[in-house]
User: Fold this.
Amino acid sequence: MLEVHTRPKSKDLFDRIREHILLGHYFPGQWLKQAELESYYNASRSDVRSALSSLSERGIVEYVKNRGFRVFDRSPEEIGEIVEMITVLEGAGVHTVVDKATNEDVAELETLAERFDSLITQGSHADLRLANYRFHDKLNSMCGNKLMAQTVRHLRECCVSGPFARYTTFDGLNESSKEHFEIIALLKQKDSAKLEVLLRQHTTHST
Assistant:
């Protein structure tokens, strides 16, 4: 899953629409009408089309022949397969993450974990999804393999709005938050074996 290349204007539009999808402004299955996007983003038809095509290549939206583009609404089976790929890649990078982690990296992870925790009582479902995504994106960026980190990022974007039961209950959200801090503690202890096990458990429940 390599980086999508678009013209400068459509790349900026790609980033804006992508961010709005991750934030929950557009929901899974929602049709993205080009005329409305042109007006909302003050963009040309060609740039909107290019941005949507790039989002389709990334797996964030899908193109339906004779209908147009809509936000991908993945089945539980598809999300399960994506999560399986994420756990394999994250597990492969654990030892390097532990070796390369700096005090600054750990401090940033703690800030992101605290952000997620505060949103349990103050934020929306979309806020929590994005906070979790950013926590794991930072963690994966520490592996030192840019292509691996980028691939995991793209996979997470494909299922950031997935139907995970843990996000439907207060207890589930608290458990997810607790695991964020446990991940950081194991990182500080440089215990890569236990960290790999915890990451697999955590990712399976709350990607």
Summary: The domain at 8-71 is CATH 1.10.10.10 (Arc Repressor Mutant, subunit A). The chain has two domains: 8-71, 76-206.
